[in-house]
Amino acid sequence: MIARVHGGLTGSRSESGVALLQVLLISAVISILAVRFTLTAQNQLEMASQFDQRVFAELKAKSVLNEVIFLQLSEKIRPYDVADSSYSLLSRPTMNRYGDEINWSKGVKVWIQDMNGLIPQMFVGHFLWKPVLLGLSFNEKEVERYLGTWGDMQDDDLVSWEGNGDEPVSLPNGAQFINGYAQNNKLLSWIFSESQAELRVLNEVSDISAPYETNLLNAPDELLTILLEPSAAEEFIKARRSRNWSPNELISLLPEEYQSHTVASYRSNDVEIRVQVTGADNLWIESRVISLTSGSKPPFEVRLKE
After folding, report:
1. What is the SS3 assignment for 80?
2. HEC assignment per residue over 188-226
3. CB 93 within 8 A of CB 193
4. How far apart are CA 217 and CA 251, in angstroms?
5. Is 289 in contact with 115 (CB distance < 8 Å)?
6. Which pTM does this prediction carry?
């Protein structure tokens, strides 16, 4: 009897040890799963937060874009009390149409560029193309070749600009001669494909949507620094930002060869508006080319969306 009782106690202790080990293993597995679930939940919360911030930034950018369009269309603004005392719209005098950065509100920046301040890519014979290309350090022969080839690509005949035969079928880089007006900036990219640094500048100071009539009062700083002597460009840019000069006074600062090609009070209906909203971990940019038609319904048309 004693031997049997002693043997039974030994078996019971062994079974208890195994059971304890199983419980510990199960507890460890459950703990690992719980930690994993917690990490997954945290990641999902972080993703949801980032998505929420991105949506907020997008909505904020679209809202500011509408505010800018409203101000461009408004002749007078009459202030009213609003629930949010921190809310305010910039008045028109604090805005510019030459692409200078505007600090709209916290984390929001706006750029407005009147399209008549840019060089028209559609019109190769425009009076500013040659001085701009020369200002970018191309020599006379290179400028003549670039403009001649560019003209050949847009005219509807097959005669080479050099007058010694037919136009080639394509450029050395494989770009085809479209023999029609450009619809985007691809022609510019094809023609200046071997001069990437200059191409970047040309894309900044020109546009396919720019009209033939150019107002240098709306020209971006980069274009003015190419066209004018350094001291003249600095004086003009400084005077323009001070807002203490009338349009006619500003034009008088330009060299005589440019004055006859500008219009003192010419503001075109087409503007490019770019809005940038910067958050803690995100950045959202909205860009539109807007045609303002105050007498129509709606009073504006989106010509290009980026």
Report:
1. coil
2. HHHHCCCCHHHHHHHHHHEECCCCCCCCHHHCCHHHHHH
3. no
4. 7
5. yes
6. 0.78
